[in-house]
Amino acid sequence: MTSIPPQKPLDPAAPTTILCVASYFKGNDFIDQCKREGCKVFLLTLESLLGKPWVRESIDEVFALPQGTPMTDRRQLINAVAYLMRNHDIQRVAPLDDYDVEIVAHLREHLRIPGMGETTARYFRDKLAMRTRAKDRGIPVPDFVPILHHPRISDYLDRVPAPWLLKPRGEASASGIQKLHTKEEAWAAINALGDEQSYYLLERFTPGDIFHVDAITSDREVVFAECHQYRRPLLQIAQGGGIFATRTVARGSTLERQLLEMHKRVIRELGIVRGVTHTEFIRGQDGTIYFLETAARVGGVHISDLVEATTGINLWREWAKIEITQGEKPYRVPSKRADYGGLIVTLAKQESPDTSAYTDPEIVWRMQDNAHHVGLAVRSPSAERVDELLDQYERRFAEDFAAVLPQARTPTA
Fold first, then answer.
1. How many domains does the chain have?
2. Under a CB-based contact definition with an 8 Å cutoff, are residues 401 and 352 in contact?
3. Closest CA to 229 of 247, 216, 243, 245
């Protein structure tokens, strides 16, 4: 990554000014930590999100793009931020959502503001870029082909057994993925994309257990990482509905060591210098751990709340510290606990679900003020107790709350 040297404020005594860019309501802890670190904090969001409960007491000024202007409109966004910079010495820009990572990288490059640039950001947003890089560096990935050269796609369909997954390169998590079972079905789906074909890839469906590693990197070294296993594949939940749940991988186990080592390889080869990451792996039926995808942001669906419950580390707050200093000061991750934890979240048929009947002492977090959603996190020194509680809660959630709605864009894992 080309390093952009930090710009000093005209007044050395002036606080660092950071612009937080958010196309989705999230990141209040990040914003609040920036203020605690003494920053002047600006929020740039969409007009439709102005009514959300942002931590206004920690924000100096809020700016919004006009209704109908997407955050992905690079020209409009550059013009808006450049206009702000006429009167404000903005020294940092940070994305609060996965969909903001690339546009913020573009902003940094154009405005010469330090932080992750476009080349590295591509490895953490573009599913084709990250797979190609990983494969070139010897990291196992499910067999894939870009939707570009049709003869190569035809050879792939002849060579790689079905089923396959047709994946959009720029979406997050399981959004927009199609599962295809025959060549005819695959070609029909590809042809239906028309001129959008180059924005997709085809990947072999690999059954197995799916894991996520949520981590902090400082000066190219992974300084904190937690391993968890999804109880059901995200693709299955995204396409068929169901209850999302994840829990801590056995600490000190061979599996945890394998995941942590594979994660270090991914971080090293994809070139992130500093920040937080959410990375997913699958253990295939052959025992191989394959890299699935990664993102330069805090994991969604309240995974950060699970990490904080079990370790005491708030990923949003630590990310804020790293983004502000940009290596100018050494970063030290706080000491952590090493409990076991589990998280369960689902859509609810009630607008304001009531979880007061769930009284186990291991419950350490409850979802609040999120209409038609319900969630709990549990913590215990015993992995077996966590699994026992999640087994119970999955059954109870299905009876008490669970609802299935048409697929829409929601916070991603």
1. 3
2. no
3. 247
